[in-house]
Amino acid sequence: MFSYKTAVALKKHGFTNIRIYNGGLKDWEKSGYEIEVRNPLPEYEGKYMDAQELMTLISRAETQGCRGPDGNPLFTLLDYRTELANNSGENMQVIKTNCPKLIMHLDDFADPAQRGLIPRKGLVVLVCETGNRDPFAMRYLYSHGYDNVAGLRFGMRAWIKADYAVEEYH
Amino acid sequence: MQRLVWLLVLLSLFVSLPAFGMERFEIVTTEEMRTMLQQREEGKVDFLLVNTLDKLLFDNESIPGSINVPWASVDKTMHRLGNDKDHPIVVYCKGYR
Fold first, then answer.
1. What is the three-class DSSP state of A58?
2. Is residue A14 within a helix (H) or strand (E), and if so which, with residue range?
3. Which residues form the Rhodanese domain (chain B) (predicted)?
């Protein structure tokens, strides 16, 4: 998906000779070919929740005003879908909740100021397109001391498939 | 009235179809990719291999000889491709499966 969308963007910018290696890293690695590692992420087994669990969490948290007795957020949604963070998806839908929601790029996690917005208290639930990037996002955040993060299994795709509440993001 | 409904349906199709227009690109297989990289090393072909994932993912793993132009920041990183817009480019990400 990322390769196709980049190819489309480059073509729009006038590049004329673009091909796509469809198998990507998965097929390359599966074929036993060499992988280059510049800055490895630490090993970390992250936590995951499915759409139904998140729906239950949202409902429960909203009845409590989204904050625990200590004033910390009960949970925060961290939506790092690229099109959403780029604001290139017109009228994109996000998970509906009154509880705190952060929207940023995955690479923003490397910026201390942006990363500082991610709470260290309460559960942080990652939302990406399909959940594919969550293991890497969790490994990166773990390397910066975050162990309060969980991924939404199969990402926003699962939420929409379950037909749970969404709202438009402008 | 029925004619008007059909007219509206046809009109809505005409308006919405371009939104489904898909750009088509030539696909490179894993074996072709391997051969192309070998030939590039031998100076027989020249192309840019572009990893389109976020930098955090590119740093964690990439195909040797790639440059990083993340989809998230194409506009900011496109200069890495140089000025020759006809230069062959192969883009990849994590993969479809």
1. helix
2. none
3. 58-95
A36–chain B Cβ distance below 8 A for any pair: yes
CA angle B26, B55, A129 (to 5 degrees): 70
pLDDT, tens digit, for every residue of A78-105? Answer: 999 998 888 765 678 999 999 999 999 9
Cβ-contact B92, A24 below 8 angstroms: yes
Domain B26-92, second-level architecture: 3-Layer(aba) Sandwich (3.40)
Cα separation, A143 vs A52, in Å, equals 29
Q: Is the distance from CB of A121 to CB of A83 less than 8 angstroms?
A: no
Nearest-CB residue to B56 (from A11, A25, A107): A107
Order the strands of the B66-68 sheet from edge to edge.
Answer: B26-28, A18-21, B89-92, B48-51, B66-68
Q: What count of residues does chain B have?
A: 97
| Residue A83, helix vs strand vs coil | helix
Per domain, the residue ranges of chain A are: 1-36, 41-169
Q: Is 90 exceeded by the pLDDT of residue A59?
A: yes
Distances in Å between the Cα of B96 and the Cα atoms of A27, A165, B14 are 9, 28, 31
Please check the confidence at residue B14 and state whether its pLDDT lies above 70: no
DSSP three-state, residue A49 = strand
CA-nearest residue to B78 within chain A is A10
Q: What is the mean predicted confidence (pLDDT) over B68-79?
A: 95
Decide if A62 touches B, using CB distance below 8 A: no
